[in-house]
Amino acid sequence: MRASVTLSVAVLVGLSACGNSGPLSPTLTVAAAANLTGAIEELAAAFERESGVKSTLSLGSTAQLAQQLTNGAPFDLLLAADNEHVEKLTGRGVIAPGTGAAYALGRVALWIPDESRAVKSLEDLTRPEVKFIAVAQPELAPYGLAAIEAMRHAGIWERVRAKIVYANNISMARQMAASGNADAAFTALPLVMNGPGRILTMDPSFHAPIEQTLGIATASAARREPRAFREFVLGPRGRAILARRGYELPASR
């Protein structure tokens, strides 16, 4: 699933963080994992207010965005939902060396939109009244893989796997539950933390850490705008937005 959001343009100003004088050019193209829905729009809007640079955003599963970038999609930056894809793309020369950096630590949540359902633990997913559980495809989305790891850790996977319905990304998994096509959905905590329903946050020990990492496309490494956006996300203003949105943060640089 691919959505694009174009933010309004403001007057151009220079960014001292770039280390160069003169205005930045007015556009930036950012590919962002679906779990960043909402957060990436806020990050881009705040960056535009500071720099005058507007951003076009493409959201989807990390694997799909990485493939698009490999195939020549004109993304300036990739904000992935894991570290592995950025490392692989760096090794292939698609992401510029030295630009990869962790910007957030993902938190997996089980969301039950109808609080009247008796689902208060992972074990409750095995109850017969729970018919469908939405999960992002694990080969596409790190959060989907983490959800399956959590179910395996809890010892329920073999009892619930026939109930699993797969989505291309966690935003779509959430939508399946929101529309009533699934009784519960594994998704990212920031996507559901301020909405209705019951939320069960997964113990981080139930799955491999989700170290969300960004990187600049090699084709854009010489441009100042991607480097400025990278520094903004990793800096205090970007970190404050991510923390407010429900992400845990890696140690600051």
Short description:
This protein has helices at residues 39-51, 62-70, 84-91, 142-153, 157-160, 170-178, 189-192, 224-234, 236-244; strands at 3-6, 27-33, 54-60, 77-79, 101-105, 108-112, 133-136, 164-167, 184-188, 198-201, 211-216.
Give a written overview of the molecule.
The longest helix has 13 residues, at 39-51. The strands form two sheets. A six-stranded mixed β-sheet has the order 1-3-2-4-11-5. The chain folds into two domains: 3-105 and 210-244, Periplasmic binding protein-like II (D-Maltodextrin-Binding Protein, domain 2, 3-Layer(aba) Sandwich), CATH 3.40.190; 108-206, D-Maltodextrin-Binding Protein, domain 2, CATH 3.40.190.10. It is of the alpha/beta class. Helix 1 (39-51) links the parallel strand 2 and strand 3 (54-60). The chain has helices at 39-51, 62-70, 84-91, 142-153, 157-160, 170-178, 189-192, 224-234, 236-244, and strands spanning 3-6, 27-33, 54-60, 77-79, 101-105, 108-112, 133-136, 164-167, 184-188, 198-201, 211-216.
